[in-house]
Amino acid sequence: MGFxxxxxxxxxxxxxxxxxxxxxxxxxxxxxxIADFDEDTDYFPAKFVPHNTTDLFEISYHKTYKVITNKFxxxxxLLYMCGTPPPADxxxxxxxxxxxxxxxxxxxxxxxxxQIAPPEMLGKRREITAYIGNPKYVSSPCLDYMADVEKSLxxxxxxxxSSNSTLIDAAxxxxxxxxxxxxxxxxxxxxRAERDRHMAFAASxxxxxxxxxxxxxxxxxxxxxxxxxxxxxxETEERYDCSARNAAALTADxxxxxxxxxxxxxxxxxxxxxxxxxxxxxxxxxxxxxYNCEFAHHCGADIISRPEGLGTNYTWGSDxxxxxxxxEEFLEVGKDADLWIYPSKTYLDxxxxxxxxxxxxxxxxxxxxxxxxxxxxxxxxxxxxxxxDVVALDMCALVGNENxxxxxxxxRWFRNVYAEAVGxxxxxxxxxxxxxxxxxxxxxxSPLVEDLPSLLGDPTETSASIVPSGSMPIFISFFVxxxxxxxxx
Length: 489
Known about the structure:
- Strand 4 and strand 5 form a beta hairpin.
- This protein has 14 helices and 19 strands.
- The radius of gyration is 23 Å and the shape is globular.
- The protein has two domains: 15-231, Rossmann fold (3-Layer(aba) Sandwich); 257-481, 3-Layer(aba) Sandwich (Rossmann fold).
- The longest helix is centred in the middle third of the chain and has 26 residues, at 226-251.
- The protein has 489 residues and is α/β, with parallel strands linked by helices.
- Helix 6 runs antiparallel to helix 7 (226-251) and helix 7 packs parallel to helix 13.
- Residues 1-20 and 451-489 have low confidence and may be disordered.
């Protein structure tokens, strides 16, 4: 049994009597009393199972506790049902980085804006009690209201000395004094994940948009809201699959030379290193290597790929190679693309400096250049992650592979830099909206063809498993999407 998408009053656990073993209708939202505790009861009847493209976390369920494993950092977190005895042997093993009673009600501090949408979608916005970082990057209207008007959201940031770890650590310690049961959401890398009461999230390191979105399951496990998360995931994926099926139908007999070619690239100023390269371009060995390539594949488009080994690479202290091209290399690779997606707000600034170069690109000549400011300067790194179904439909609209029949999709995220203004998010309807689950925009996709068994194979498979006829395998790194360039990743 799932939870409703609106309202924060969720059904409590209901005991069904009549068997030797008590059965719960849903995951409890309050602690279990000593009088009601039954060691044979499964206290987590609603379980979250990651998607088959989700590589970096898993959740194992036991009757009174569950274990989340972050495979990216090789860390595990033990969550036991509040009011039940913590599993002594598991705790004594010392293998779990964090042991918490659930549902968690002690507050959370976030360190990256992509961590905002999942708790909001689960109706746990009020659990976000601190943000450690520059508040200008926060796009959530309700979180801004909580910080600026209510003052219920603590901002830990020192604009005059933003990188001073001593100041940040002192302010964080003060936050813990005020919120002793709070936990801090750390990013995928960095020393914060090693500290007590820190939980690392690696959604940004997943290959696909489906897998990135799947991390809502980790958030839901903290609050015993797996049933709610399952409903959100299923409904979003259903809308996502709709646009994949439409694109597959429209491109099934389309010659390769007729497909739109997409250049996904941006400029990073590396002049401080004394080098002349800085163009980050898609590299595409497989269609599911990262979320950007998944979108292009999803819509039956071809993405221009950086030839293997071309350019100069840096690791930036990680295990990943980030490649950059010179102006000359970039021109040769991308000049003939039909359209250019520039995943940053810096396109016009870069164009002012590199006009002579960029004017040689077909996409620039045709004014087919799109950035990611359709809903504001920073929303791409926050709310967009909750709307991968809408982003996919945006991509399909750009390459001409969406259902041409009404309702016609209005692009939400990709903004034509020559013809369209920077977008914005609606204001928070405070205070009532703060206590309601955040419901993202939903893709309005009407099926073009109801039954495509010969084209798509098993209709129960998700689009992440569908390979439309004639499509190319494609790849883009997360860094191309601008994540590394932002301070919150």
